[in-house]
Amino acid sequence: MEFKSIIQTLLETLEKNPTKKALFYQDNNRHWKGISFGETKELIFKTAKSMLSYGIVEGSNVAIFSQNMPQWSITDFAIQMIHGVSVPIYPTVSTTQTEYIIHETQASLIFVGEQEQYDKTIELISRLNCIKKIVVFDENVQLKEKNLSVYYHDFIESSDIDITDEVVISRIKKINPDDILTIIYTSGTTGEPKGVMLSHECFSEMIRIHKVRLSYYENDVSLCFLPLSHIFERGWTTFILINGMQNYFLKNPKEIIVAVSEVKPTLLCAVPRFFEKTYSAVFAQLDKFPPFKKKIFLWAIKTGTEFSEKNRLESGISVCLKIRYFFADFLVLKKGRSVFGGRIRYIPCAGAALKDEINKFFHAVGINVKYGYGLTETSATVSCFEDIWMSW
What we know:
Number of domains: 2
CATH architecture of the largest domain: 3-Layer(aba) Sandwich
Order of helices and strands: HEEHEHEHEHEEHHEEHEHEHHHHEHEE
Number of strands: 14
Strand order of the largest sheet: 4-3-5-6-7
Radius of gyration: 23 Å
Number of helices: 14
Shape: elongated
Strand content: 15-25%
CATH class of the largest domain: Alpha Beta
């Protein structure tokens, strides 16, 4: 069977429904704006051509040092398109760790997000001779070293006119399964960060197996708030876009509660800490309830737990339980789901241990936490919960 790279599959998706909105971001007034699949394809090609004009050769390492925004993913795909290697850097990492990663990968081209990442990169110029150009996503950033710095918009408009789509596509055709797609640095347990090298085949297999295991629809909407520099959110965002779904990029993860109420996602990935904080906040508020209201809440959670367990085990649900669940949902549970926007189908969760009591609580409310386990070295998911209990 002929190997098909992620970027090849993505381009096919982008061409299917060019007018449909694909990537969303917040403008300076915090209004959500959309970029269509067709526009996304055009931006990926423009970014790829500009990198070729700059002189990026096959196998070159290109760094992305930014918080979540559409340009992050567009640049990542453009790097893949020209047969380069993307090196993501966590947006709040220290200058020392940034220096270590850039020095080890010898990235000559680095894309940065906002002022914080730009200033850290500028600080390193005198110590890292490899940095030749800094491309800045946010045009509100105050540029200092203007001979080395350029805004992303200007960068993608400056490509050599002789570099055609065909030139770019010729690079795609050279991609082999074992070629390195990305180097992701993890903290490890001791010493300096460790660079994990993931191949094109690794990402393609990740998409294949997630299609088998996860349910999804083209009208699904995801909210991207975990850092794209980590394999979890990056792999998930790739899965979302390659299957024609919509993705909302949230720069500041601290604004997640407000964002979910605005976006009303059907899907999003999260870490256990997200659920732990929500769980603690709920029960802190519960202590302030009058006794009768508190009793109704606990009864509803107990009923929801029983209902979800019966569903999960496929052991049959009695008419009595269905009636109890109807009232529990009406009085309490649906209000809990509304905190997440009211449309969530499931939430992949990984990264640390999640207590059973918290897991069961959210399942009782009707939030399908698809808890799993994975590693950067395995392109995220190794195993995860199934969907069989989620039938209401």
